[in-house]
Design goal:
Elements: H1 2-19
């Protein structure tokens, strides 16, 4: 479960950086 959460945060961070 923690691994999925970490992956989600990583994916979210990548999207945010691309949007900026």
């Amino acid at each position: 479960l923690d691994r999925i959460r970490n992956y989600g945060l990583r994916l979210y961070a990548t999207i945010v950086l691309k949007l900026q």
